[in-house]
Amino acid sequence: MPALAATLGKVTNNEPLTLRAISANHRLGDAAAAARVVHYVLDEKASEQEQAYAVEALQHWTTPDRIDLVDGFHRGLPERESHLAASALKPYLAAFLAVPRAETRTAAMELARNYQLTIPHETLLTLAQDPVSPGPIRAEALHTLGQSPNDAVFTLLEQLLSDDDTHVAIAALDQWVKHRPDEAAREIQRRVESKAPLEVRQHAI
């Protein structure tokens, strides 16, 4: 298995082998394996499916699924220390947030939150209010900002409660309810009675 894991990124145009190599690294679970998977996510030669599998492996690095990500076999892998994936990801977090694939950028936000990696506050504020960025990425930025809110965050949340994107509006409402419980009932009522998208009104209820 170590030999298979070491082939990740060295063999091109062979998706089945690459997926097996990602799985082998995930099963090994050590720092070197985590680093190989991180590097492969950023490899321009990686297909969307390969990148998606590599990201999923990182998402499950600390608490692996019992079922193998690729072949579907039962593995029963033990839990691992979070620093293994966190240390591999930390130097490349900014690069993860810049990849073209929106799902990978969203996953990078989730990984940063789950592994307690710091994204600069200004970067998060910019992402959250950028109408060009996909809604899930903006919403994840709001969730991360909600871990250490300040006046700028509360001002932004108030603005985004009425955002056109349902992901963003729902995330803003969740954070508002969490950090401003005394004002939550009023905002929920406003959303229910507003012309906001149905998903937002249902979430408020």
Describe it.
This protein is an all-alpha fold. It is 63% helix and 0% strand. The protein has 13 helices and no strands. The mean pLDDT is 85.
Short note summarizing the structure:
This protein has 205 residues and is mostly helical.
Give the beta-strand count: 0
Average pLDDT number? 85
CA gyration radius, whole angstroms? 19 Å
Q: Roughly what fraction of the amino acids lie in strands? A: under 5%
Structural class: mainly alpha
Helix content: 55-70%
Q: Based on CA inertia axes, which overall geometry fits?
A: elongated
Our count of helices gives 13
Largest sheet: none
Tag the structure with descriptive keywords.
mainly alpha, elongated
Layout of secondary structure:
Blueprint: H1 2-6, H2 15-28, H3 31-41, H4 48-59, H5 83-89, H6 93-96, H7 102-114, H8 121-129, H9 135-145, H10 151-160, H11 166-179, H12 181-193, H13 198-204
Helix pairs in contact: 2-3, 2-4, 3-4, 3-5, 4-7, 7-9, 8-9, 9-11, 10-11, 11-12, 11-13, 12-13
